[in-house]
Amino acid sequence: MILFPNAKINIGLYVTERRPDGFHNIETVFYPIDLRDILEIHEVKGSKGVCSFTSTGIPIDCAPEKNLVTRAYYLLAEEHGLPSVDVHLHKVIPYGAGLGGGSADAAFTLVGLNRLFSLGLSEGQLMAYAERLGSDCAFFVRNRPVFAFGKGELMEAVDLSLAAYSMVLVKPDRGVSTPEAYRGIVPRAAMFDLREIGKLPMREWSEVIRNDFEGSVIPKVPEIGEIKDRLKSLGALYVSMTGSGSAVYALFDNPVDIEKEFPGCFVWQEKKGL
């Protein structure tokens, strides 16, 4: 079985309060994009309960047993007695970017195992498993635009499509760890109800939709601010850092030529109508 876990962007990201459990409550819109990893899962006949994991592409800087893909397998294997599997991940979505690539890989592993072994788990059951792996993992089971709140695990459908726009994604050659990004955050109330985003013209987004992490992250990684400024100068309708960084996305009315604009950066484009 071959699956293609996709990345996401955050449209708006308000950190509204610190929770008693040490986490933070947020409000954001998760929006899936077509930047994808490649995940291959094969059953190993004659044995149970073992996941053999290999990877190519962007190097994965953690032990296989700590990788979210293997953790997702063992979560289901423990409760459903799964056969052993060989899993290969070709990593395309960059780390430390705010794109949710690791969470997507975990969620797609759950979905893939459910199909491969005919477990009969519903979307809600898969989302419950995904929540045990990470706050935004459950989104990738649903994988449709949502307003997310709580720690990011609570979701409501939101009426939003970016299909008419061209998207550019740029990540500098520096990542940002989520704990580091949160250390500079001062929680505050959201300045806009993101559930109403579909009613707001995009040219007005920058007036009321912000990513709270930009204030703490950009001083530490000034390249992010430079990328934002350059994308704005190219005519973007809206530019924002996604998640806790360091990737920046921009939305344009029409495709733009950026091949030589960001040397040394990871650059990806999703053109209008594709």
TrEMBL record:
The keyword DNA repair does not apply. Its EC number is 2.7.1.148. It comes from the Bacteria. It catalyses: 4-CDP-2-C-methyl-D-erythritol + ATP = 4-CDP-2-C-methyl-D-erythritol 2-phosphate + ADP + H(+). Keywords: ATP-binding, Isoprene biosynthesis, Kinase, Nucleotide-binding, Transferase. Pathway: Isoprenoid biosynthesis; isopentenyl diphosphate biosynthesis via DXP pathway; isopentenyl diphosphate from 1-deoxy-D-xylulose 5-phosphate: step 3/6. It holds the Pfam family GHMP_kinases_N. ATP binds at residues 94-104. Belongs to the GHMP kinase family. IspE subfamily. Catalyzes the phosphorylation of the position 2 hydroxy group of 4-diphosphocytidyl-2C-methyl-D-erythritol. This is 4-diphosphocytidyl-2-C-methyl-D-erythritol kinase.
